[in-house]
Amino acid sequence: MEETKKEEQSISISEMEYLPVTKSVRESMRVQKTEYIRQQMRKRQEQEDALMAQLLQEQRVIDGLQQKINENLEQTEASGKYNKEFKESMNAQIYALHGISEDKLEGMREYRNAYYQGSAFSLFLLSAALIVLCGALHGFQSEICVFMLAYTGIEGALLAQGTKRWKIVDGLCRLLYLLIFPAMMAMFVCYELDYPAYGIFLPYATAAGVAVLVFATLSYFLYSPYRKVKKQVREAKHHIGDIEKTARKEVRRNQKQREKEEKKADRLQQKEDKREERRIRISKKKEQQNK
């Protein structure tokens, strides 16, 4: 009896799991209940550890997939850049075979722009000179001078911000710009020679000028340099939606698989709990019999 007391005093709570216990302690109802609670807590801790390990594993998989995605994007960009450079190099070699250098090609591209810019500048100066001439002959408040001033303003609207329009609209604006000064000259000649056609053409010329001005202004405000980008954004959103649908299907399938495994684990746990309860009842009966 004294040896049993000494043995019980020598066992601490933290050493219960590692040191042997006496028969009386093992058959104690309080000890068995505490041991059962401890086992339940240990199982819960194991489940939390398993969940944490799963989360860490998922994060490692996500990091690996993200790295692969970044590598694929870099390879795609590098491939596109290489294809573009290869195409430019191939074109340059073909032009070189025909005796055409890159400088000549650049000069040919800039020649048209320089020719149009020179023509546009000359026409604008002539229009300004025509305004001054009309003002000197008939006064700056005269009808013909106001008409010339309005058409010169239309020229400015057609000429300004040409790069911020669609190519087709910009070409049409350039054509209209080249036709403005001949129309001004025709109206000036009719006015100076006092032709009856001046009174007939004036309302139509005014309406046409307003229409051209509205067209030039709207073409500038309606131009969007991100139109192609918006299309790519719509395609990207559609792709994201497809990815989310696929991910939801995979998640539902994995959830069903996990629920099956959890149900199976619950059934096994219930069986184990029943065995534990049965063992506790048997231990209680033995304890009552010993008393």
Describe this structure in words.
With 291 residues, the protein is mainly α. It has helices at 2-10, 23-26, 29-97, 102-138, 143-159, 167-192, 197-222, 227-290. Helix 3 (29-97) runs antiparallel to helix 8, helix 4 (102-138) runs parallel beside helix 6 and helix 6 (167-192) packs antiparallel against helix 7. The two termini are 16 Å apart. Mean pLDDT is 76; it is low at 1-19.
Map the helices and strands:
Elements: H1 2-10, H2 23-26, H3 29-97, H4 102-138, H5 143-159, H6 167-192, H7 197-222, H8 227-290
Helix pairs in contact: 3-8, 4-5, 4-6, 5-6, 5-7, 6-7
> Based on helices, strands and strand pairing, what is the structural class?
mainly alpha
The H/E string reads: HHHHHHHH
**Estimated radius of gyration:** 45 Å
Low-confidence stretches: 1-19
Beta-strand content: under 5%
Quick take:
The chain is mainly α and 291 residues long. It has 8 helices and no strands.
Labels describing this entry:
87% helix; mainly alpha; disordered N terminus; 291 residues
